[in-house]
Write a structure and sequence with these properties.
Length: 217
Amino acid sequence: MPLQIAPSLLSADFLELGKDVAMLNKSADIIHLDIMDGTFVPNISFGFSVVEPVAKAARIPCDAHFMVTNPEKWVDRCAAAGVSMMSFHLEAAGRKTRSILRDIRAHGMKAGLAINPDVPVDKLFPYIGAADYFLIMSVFAGFGGQKFIYESLDRVWELRQRLLRKGNGALIEVDGGVNEGNAAALADAGAEILVAGSSVFRSEDPAKTISALRNCR
Ligand code: DX5
Ligand code: ZN
C-alpha cells in the first residue's frame, strides 16, 4: 500500500482554512483533525464548529484524532459530520476501549486507537482485530511543532511485526514531528499513514512537501 499523507490542520492558518482544505483536496490523502479538550492534554484546539465545515468541504477522508477524556461522547456527532476515521487514546478510554472501537465501527467509520510515547506498544496488542488503525504518537499529544522522538521507529516496527504475525491488516499511523528527514525511516519501519503538521504548513510550498513526503522512498 502506498504511503498516505495526512496533513494536520492544527498548523494551518485558521483565517485561511477554506483555502487550505481546497489545497489538501488536491494534494493530500487524508485530512487530520486534532481535537483537544484541555483536560486529557494541556491545550485546547477546536471542536465541531471546525470539524463540521471541514468535513463538508473535504473531498478526501477526514481523520479525527480525539485527545479528550470520554471520547465515547463524540462518536455520533463525528459520524454525522461525515468524518470517516476516528481515533482516541487508550490512556483516556481504559476499560471502555473495546466498546468505543465497536461503536465507531458501528457508525460506519474506521476505528483508530492511539497511544502516547510513554505507553508500552504491547498495550495495543489486545486490540488487534478490534481496530482498523493504530496511531503511534511520536511526540506527546498536545501541541504541533514538537521534535520527533526517535524511539518511535522501534515502536512502529514492533507493532508492524506483531500485525504481520497475526495476519492482521490494520494500518499504522504516526503523528508528531514527521518531516522529510524521518518519513522514509517511518515507512521502512511499517507506517502507512504519516500525519504532518508544521512540516507541511510551515513550508514554502505545502503541496510540494506533501508529495515529497509521499515519495520519500
Ligand atoms: C499533536 C497532534 C499532531 C500535531 C502534529 O498533539 O496530534 O497531529 O498537529 O504536528 P507536527 O507535525 O507539527 O508535530
Ligand atoms: Zn494528531
